[in-house]
Amino acid sequence: MKKSSTLFGVILSIILVFSNVFAQVPSAVSKTNPKTSIENKSITKTSKVVTSETIESDVAEALTLIESNHVNGKSLDYNDLFKTSIDSMLHTLDPHSNYFDAKESEQFRTDQSSRYFGIGATIGDLSDANGNVIATFIKATFEGAPANRAGLTYGDKILEVNGASMVGKPFSEVRTFLRGPRGTVAKLVVEKYGTGKRETVEIIRDAVAQPSISEAYMIRPGVGYINMSGGFNSTTFAEFRQAMANLKTEGMQQLVIDLRNNGGGLVNQAYYVANTFIGKGQTIFTQKGRLEGTADSYPSTNANPDDTPLVVLVNRNTASASEILSGALQDHDRALIVGETTFGKGLVQNPFQLEYGSMLLLTIAKYETPSGRLIQRDYSNGNLYDYYTKGGTYRDENGNQPPKGMETKTDSGRTVYGGGGIMPDEVVKPKTLSEDSLRIQQKLVNPIFAYALDLAFGKISGLDPYKVDRPIKFDYDIKSKDFEITDQIFQGFKNYAVQKYKVPANQIDKEKEFVLRVLRTELVTAAYGSQTSFQVFNEYDNQLQRAIELLPQAKQLAIEGAKANAKKLNSSLDR
Length: 575
Known about the structure:
Layout: H1 5-21, H2 52-69, H3 78-91, E1 98-100, H4 102-112, E2 115-118, E3 121-127, E4 133-141, H5 146-149, E5 157-161, E6 164-165, H6 171-178, E7 185-191, E8 198-204, E9 206-209, E10 215-220, E11 223-227, H7 236-249, E12 254-258, H8 267-275, E13 283-289, E14 296-299, E15 310-314, H9 321-331, E16 336-339, E17 347-353, E18 359-368, H10 384-393, E19 407-409, E20 415-417, E21 426-427, H11 435-456, H12 487-501, H13 505-510, H14 512-528, H15 530-538, H16 542-549, H17 551-574
Parallel strand pairs: 11-12, 12-15, 15-16, 16-21
Antiparallel strand pairs: 1-18, 2-9, 3-4, 4-5, 5-6, 5-7, 7-8, 10-11, 13-14, 13-18, 17-18, 19-20
């Protein structure tokens, strides 16, 4: 049993955590600091129901029987076996309690620090007409990142990494060679697309920023846009505050916050963003748990809240901390919520560090929105697949129905519901693709990338204005005329795709909008970086366009909410 002693230790640690957590009695804490809801607490030890000796003896006996009698006993991966057993135990409690081994625990901490370790580049592979990967290329670098300092640019073909050939490998495999511990060397051999010359570049891996705000810019005159799809990490509020300041300098008078695909993260960061817009004394969320510091309400502390008219975009993958933010803004009528009903995760997890570097992420509380909504979806059948698909990804295909939980009221008296996420004030579904369109678009991805490379490096005569053989210009907001895809370029691409990739011309014509969008995105990526390239996709985003149209309604809603809150405040003062 020697080889499994580490795993025994982990299991014993988990038993101790469980016995101590469930014996803890809550006590009063500060009502203005949500930080307590996400940080580890000191835990008072109580008498254990089961001794560690009993647990170790039972586990050792079970493992011996498995090794001796199971048909695959000699070839089992016991790390996987124990991890699965721990996860199964946790998932009988709720869908969001999880066990992380040492490697996963380290990745979790890295993700929450808004960074990763590597060279700092976006990469993509290119395949031929038969679907065989030709090579992986640099598509963009990030400002100040090691790859940017080393001079890597769009179109650099990655031939080797530390002596290992990358030719013919997909980008997902190449990426594993590029990432690594901070301070280690990634020695790359690249071939410059424009000249065909080979260069050897030594890059010292370092921390690469992974911001939670991927893009913040003026999407229309007077209208700011902040994309917060990156989750709520340790730098989120600082990023948000800087983005707001920059946009106001540029003349922002109205704002769209995009929380689509934001899976949540640190509760305190969501609180601070909500605190920007919600007036002092108004509740942002209420947390109900058993541990000390997890049962309280968290009101705003902002005596001068920002009054910019606000629309918040949400979808089925908007979850947890992002639902705290959108729920608070909706309940106080401070923002108009647009899109699809959110995921419905109303549980709060706390990380408990275990021995040997592993970690237990344990649900310690539930939260409610200011009106008293518990937005957690039902998980009583214990089926994780149903919970994440029928409840999330594949749910509600025929229209958004109100959640089935308790009915409450916003400040101005609008009806909202608990029990299944945040339902938007205006439902706007995203555009969907037919299977035929999806199949054609997948066929067009590689010829578009190949044609963009030729355009960017001046290999197509008469189109020199589209040449992008230069370093990236960061922090740039694209203009309508930047890399406009004209009929001449579209026809040139069509001829190229027909000849080189055997794509039928009628299929290309059918997906013309897709070609225009992705081809322009490639050129913008080469010139201004991968983050700025999202601005191209936003021009085709029907949910975002509708959100901008609804800003006047958001302004009126905020006025009604402010009136209702003032009336409520005056009424309480008169008593």
